[in-house]
Description:
In chain A, helix 2 runs antiparallel to helix 7, helix 2 crosses helix 9 and helix 9 runs antiparallel to helix 10.
Amino acid sequence: MVRGPAGGKGASQSRTQWFDLLRAWAIHHRSSAQDSLQRLLTNAFSSVMTWLVIGIALAMPVGLSVALDNARSVGSSLDSPAQLSLFLRPEMSLEAAQRVQDILAQRADISGSRLVSREQALEEFQQLSGFGDVLSHLDSNPLPNLIIVSPANARMDPETASLLQADLQKLPGVDRALLDMEWVQRLNSLMALIQRVVMALGAILALGVLLVIGNTIRLAIENRRDEIVIVKLVGGSDAFVRRPFLYTGVWYGLGGAAVSWAVISATLWWLQGPLESLAVLYQSGFRVQGLGLGGGLQLLILGALLGLVGAWLAVSRHLTAIQPR
Amino acid sequence: MINFDRVSKRYPEGHEALGEVSFNIDSDELVFLTGHSGAGKSTLLKLIMLMERPSRGQVIVNGQNLKGMAASKIPQLRRDIGVVFQNHQLLFDRSIFDNVALPLEIAGYQRREVGRRVRAALDKVGLLAREKDMPITLSGGEQQRVGIARAVVNKPRLLLADEPTGNLDPTLSAEIMRLFEQFNQVGVTVLIASHDLALISRLQYRIMTLRDGRMITGAGDG
């Protein structure tokens, strides 16, 4: 069939052409993908170097975020539900303390309370502190009665907790209301900070990966300048010229992501033994969580996308500059 | 097939490569374009392929006015034009077969059809037996024939050649010209730029002559 001048063609003809175009498009996608992969494998050394660079750059933030997820799961297993301690005034009797407990029991935002009498507290303190002998010399028990309050919402945010704390402080006979979740808050804000750092690091390194891929593609374009000129001369469209380079970028990104998956898995495998024996010492049921299949696939998709975007940047910047002269 | 109407081309640095050139080439014609180097032959061919755009005037190719043709339409225009270059412009990293197949690949032909057409084109230029070889193993004349096979494999209606015999001895040059005549005889419009006056004046075709960017003979009825 001669692809001659336009006009004089029936509807069936143009539908055939439409199918032709679609088929040509599919064929070229397949051959671009195969051909660009073939080229990478032919230049195995430089391709492996590029894959390693990308893999290491991706492994840093992804590995840190895996570590962070693990730390968070340790944190949440340690994290006993937030509690408030109400120290009652010294003159309050045990009966008065029980009346405070009755008031607490009616509140919807409190799931329970436990009364620790000053005698129990002293006993516990004697046992645990090792100051038993000293305490027995005291004339009177210096400890107040204590009510330990469990909020209905064990994971309330810090503001709500402070409000509840202020509220309970106003109850009759309460000397001080103490919030026992400050260390959890500190841990959480530390985690939030580390997460920000990991995200910033991830953004910087992702930019680095983009630049590495972009530069590699730029070199590939330079190497194939003659070919690009000839393809444009015999009627190759910009998309046709662009396609193999975009696939090259995808292969670089995918390979780099696979490398980083392997690096992270190997590191975790290496750390797993020591970490879990440490966990046993702390009587924690902690187990190291890896990327998992889903996480790994996400990493591969991320890598492929970075490769595509990096290649696109390089191609749109450099291909239009190459015109037959 | 090709119509130039008072076409001028002035390059940004001020050099006027073509001035007020008008001519017409009908379908099925074979026309030679001659002149000293620098007379504007290459510029004229580049205007037909939209490798350059005219500063003034109008170019019509294959019924299409090239004025204002969008960049995205240029590939389609070029697919309908076969081009032969003086320096062959072959790709040395792939076989002769793959070089000739390139325009078909771009147009999206199926593999079986590509094979059939590439072998027909290579057969026409007498290189069917070398399809699996690399271009580097060919002589200059053979490389030029591969270039011609690539130019005609898509069965274009228009064939352009820029100094196709520039580096060849007279015997090989005559062979190449005979190939162009054969394509012309099956209905392809052929425009050949050549400064080899001795060769082209022996052949009985119209000769257009450029001197310093002006068309001085052979403009026809355009």
